[in-house]
Amino acid sequence: MKTLKDVKAGETAVIKKLHGEGALKYRIMDMGINEGTQVLVKKSAPLGDPVKVRVRECDIFLRKSDMKKIEVE
Amino acid sequence: MGIKIALVGNPNSGKSTLFNALTGSNQSLKKWHDVTLDRKIGKLKRHKSARIVELPGIYSLSPHTLEEVIAREYLLDEEPDVILNVVDGTNLEKSLYLTTQLLELGMPVVVAVNMKDMIRKKGDEINIKELSRKLGCHVTEVCAVKRKGIADTTDMLIEVAQSTRRILPQHHFSVEVERALTEISMLALKTVNPNRKKWYALKLFERDKKITKKADITERTKDLIEKEVKRAEEKLGLDAESILNKERYEYIAAVVKSCYKRNEEKKKASFTKKADKLIMDRWAAIPIFFVIMSAVYAVTFPLGSFLGDWLRDVILSDGWNFLGMEEMRIPGIAGLLNTWFTDMGSPSWLPSLVIDGVMKSICNILCIMPTMLIMFILLGFLESSGYFKRVAVIFDVVFRKAGLSGISIVPFIMGAGSNIMGTVSCDLVKNDRDKKMSAVTASFMPDLAKLPFITAIGTALFDNSLLTAISAYFIGATAVFISGMFLRKTSIFSGNPVPFAYELPDYHQPRWKDVFQTVRDRCREFTRKAGLIILISSMILWAGSKFGITEGEFGFNAELPFSDSIIYLIFENISMLFAPLGFGNATASAAVFMGFFGKENITAIMSEGDFQSFAPLGAVCFMVFNLLCTPNFAVIGALKKEMNNMKWTLFAAAYQCGFAYAVSMMIYQFGSMFSGALQSEYAVYYIVGIIISAGLLFFMGLMIFMPYKDSKTLIYTFPNKKQNK
């Protein structure tokens, strides 16, 4: 399974499925990350984690451990 | 009854700024019942009979986080006359997600598109009329920071609140979903307010547990609903919540496309982008942070304590020199009072009660205020500029394992100056769970008041005060992480999950007026919540040290030596309590007690000889205990301000003292194994102590290495109407 964590900085990926459950999954959905959404992975924060991603014209920081739960095509 | 308005919006949408713009100074800061989240209530500046409440920042009306539950329960319970929804205009797509849900609620909504100037600056265009038509509600344009569009918004709010027009959501879901919604309404929602029907149907469709419980439906109906939901899920190939999420976003994308024109030209990088390049740089970020915080520290504590000492002189001394000049001597209030009492020929206990008791207690509160004021101004400035949001992202990776937020680093730095300041600066942590955790652990740091006894032990026993002080900082920081790691596994912390998906607002120049408003609110809250605790504890201290045995008789004596006071007499008898920690003598135990009124007291009571009489192991334990236990009653007061709940305050204080006791006991008991204690006549006691310590250590280790899992259900339940008034 390829996840958002495997996508290199500067590359775009299309979301296939959100795994996991609970508050985090729904927060990610609320931010507009859902099946079929395009996500551009950008630079990570100074200490390497969290990582900046661009979704719907907006930058969001996600933790690497959470990015592992987002499957991409 | 006047008009009731609820202010709702995403975090960082400029909600608080708009609230300040709408209300001016007609506002007060409260807390949501039993939690640490701020609840601002105010009256509209231009329409005093309209009350407005700022709800926590949310992205959605789902029930997954504390903020969402509070906001939505408030809306359902209070049924405001109009909802004012702030929307970040530069970020329209994501912001409108909440708007669609608010419209589904069937309540009157006014959408205020904020950051008008930023949209213009980017060269983008937004068609407000079209947006209003597409959403089916009133829309205004504002720029909250510059106070633009406020009058129009106020007028529109009043107009909408007073109109009786029914609201119909303009947005429709796909055929399958709408079919299921109609079925659900027919099955379970016959008695529900017709305006709210659609929203309840959507929530039942999503299997929202809190609403299902509220709707009070039979098992049979539940099964029928489940069948409808399953059918739609199978047809659309997604789970119910994802279906709604996806369809809402599809609708929003269409709305945004029709009314937002993006400037496609290559733009110059904005100030925020340029600044973040440096501030969030891999190498520069951390040095920049420490430079900024050192500056805050270096201004706050010297200046604060200078002003505090001056206040103390003015109130409590016989006299003080104006600008340090001998010829400009100004009598202190206590000095004047003393003369007056002597002239009146009053009994000796009266001036002592008034000056050493009451005035000193009030002075204890007053002398904290300058430091607090300066700190809150500086932190408030950094907070509202947007810098601290970056700090939360930068340090997230360091603190998350301890159940803390990245921003918790600021309370710890301030806590190294004064534990009181560390605890009150937990205000910067916005999230309930992280804030509680920060408040519990912030006073483990050695502060300026703890340094005297740390260095005294260092010089008396180890010939090296610097090394002792450094190890104290190390012990404090370790205590923070260990506590965080195991406390967050307990149900009281894990029952409130905090998803991390963080966006950074643009930097902007803080409005001083808003900063001062926050400073005033915070200081006022501290005096209100901590004042009484500090006052009472200071009075107990006065009574405990002035009453005692003089020449065989019990009574008051203004000049009583400490070793004859009640405090000393009590602790002489219960010093056994500290025997397992290796310092079970009267002086040391009384010093521990006096430490609760300010850790400076420890060195005032214990002479160098007292410190030297410790065995090295006992000295270490004495230091560790005093380092980790609740610093003083002012910190308990500060905890009460942060926790907004007496149970949590007591828990925090008990945890700090319990943790200090447990750690010191472990050190002493394990340490004594190597010092031949097991061969002594007290061997039995040591064996019991070692077994208990080993048990504690095992338990703590177990908790630390146990994997962490967010609880699936939120433990918070919204109180009924009365309690939130």
Describe this structure in words.
The complex is a heterodimer of chains A (73) and B (725). Helix content of chain A is 18%, strand content 37%. Chain A has helices at 22-30, 64-67; strands at residues 12-18, 38-44, 51-55, 58-62, 70-72. The longest helix of chain A has 9 residues, at 22-30. Chain A starts with 11 loop residues before the first strand and ends with a strand. Chain A has one domain (4-72): SH3 type barrels (Roll). Chain A is of the alpha+beta class and 73 residues long. A five-stranded antiparallel sheet of chain A has the order 4-3-2-1-5. Chain B has 725 residues and is an alpha/beta fold. Chain B has four domains: 4-170, 3-Layer(aba) Sandwich (Rossmann fold); 175-236; 285-324 and 348-494, no CATH class; 529-669, no CATH class. In chain B, a hairpin with a 6-residue loop joins strand 2 (27-31) and strand 3 (38-44). In chain B, helix 7 (175-188) packs antiparallel against helix 10 (219-236), helix 16 runs antiparallel to helix 25 and helix 25 (512-546) packs across helix 31 (633-643). The longest helix of chain B has 35 residues, at 512-546. Chain A binds chain B through residues 18, 21-24, 26-32, 34-36, 43, 45-50, 56-63, 66, and chain B through 59-60, 62, 64-65, 91, 93-94, 97, 238, 241-242, 245-246, 249, 280-283, 285-286, 393-398, 400, 497-504, 710, 712. Strand 4 (58-62) of chain A pairs antiparallel with strand 12 (501-502) of chain B.
